TrEMBL record:
<dbReference type="InterPro" id="IPR036282">
    <property type="entry name" value="Glutathione-S-Trfase_C_sf"/>
</dbReference>
<dbReference type="InterPro" id="IPR036249">
    <property type="entry name" value="Thioredoxin-like_sf"/>
</dbReference>
<dbReference type="InterPro" id="IPR010987">
    <property type="entry name" value="Glutathione-S-Trfase_C-like"/>
</dbReference>
<dbReference type="InterPro" id="IPR004045">
    <property type="entry name" value="Glutathione_S-Trfase_N"/>
</dbReference>
<dbReference type="GO" id="GO:0004364">
    <property type="term" value="F:glutathione transferase activity"/>
</dbReference>
<comment type="subunit">
    <text>Homodimer.</text>
</comment>
<keyword id="KW-0808">Transferase</keyword>
<dbReference type="InterPro" id="IPR040079">
    <property type="entry name" value="Glutathione_S-Trfase"/>
</dbReference>
<protein>
    <recommendedName>
        <fullName>Glutathione S-transferase</fullName>
        <ecNumber>2.5.1.18</ecNumber>
    </recommendedName>
</protein>
<dbReference type="GO" id="GO:0006749">
    <property type="term" value="P:glutathione metabolic process"/>
</dbReference>
<comment type="similarity">
    <text>Belongs to the GST superfamily. Mu family.</text>
</comment>
<dbReference type="GO" id="GO:0042178">
    <property type="term" value="P:xenobiotic catabolic process"/>
</dbReference>
<feature type="domain" description="GST C-terminal">
    <location>
        <begin position="72"/>
        <end position="190"/>
    </location>
</feature>
<keyword id="KW-0963">Cytoplasm</keyword>
<dbReference type="GO" id="GO:0005737">
    <property type="term" value="C:cytoplasm"/>
</dbReference>
<feature type="domain" description="GST N-terminal">
    <location>
        <begin position="1"/>
        <end position="70"/>
    </location>
</feature>
<dbReference type="InterPro" id="IPR050213">
    <property type="entry name" value="GST_superfamily"/>
</dbReference>
Amino acid sequence: MVVTLGYWDIRGLAHAIRLLLEYTETPYQERQYRPGPGPPQLPYLIDGPTKLTQSNAILRYIARKHNLCGETEEEKQRVDVLENQLMDLRMNFARLCYSPDFEKLKPAYLEQLPKKLQELSRFLGSRPWFAGQKITFVDFLAYDVLDQHRMFVPECPELKGNLAQFLQRFEALDKVSAYMRSGRFMKTPIFWRTAQWCN
């Protein structure tokens, strides 16, 4: 059964979902929408009788099918904490990029970014993946958010060290690297045409 992922024709909130679908070898088709009157809620996922919206709910749904939500109580707690922390970072970044005052607000954003990245670096520590020894769906979210920041501030010292190793480790996963080499892969645009960066 092929699942359907519906989203705008940008990277946006669907990037982690696409990566997870590829990684889990889930057969899927995409329905991409251009700006204009689209469906009320994007992204959406249709899997037989199941119809889901909300990007993290979709990620969790796919992850539960493949046991990628953490196994121990500690791992599950780490997944929950990181999921919310990453969404805060993602939403703050999107707000900056869509703001007409982008140039004015950018210095303040860059000033507080190192602290946020240091927190993620400490949270990861010497683990291979954010929840522990095994990959979970939050690693797909973390990859997306960190990769966007790596594009935004290529020389960011906080994106060296263990976070850089995490990004490399993720990109080296067989299914992920195959997807990244394929014609289906969308690195940009991240945002809609109204954004001030990567539109």
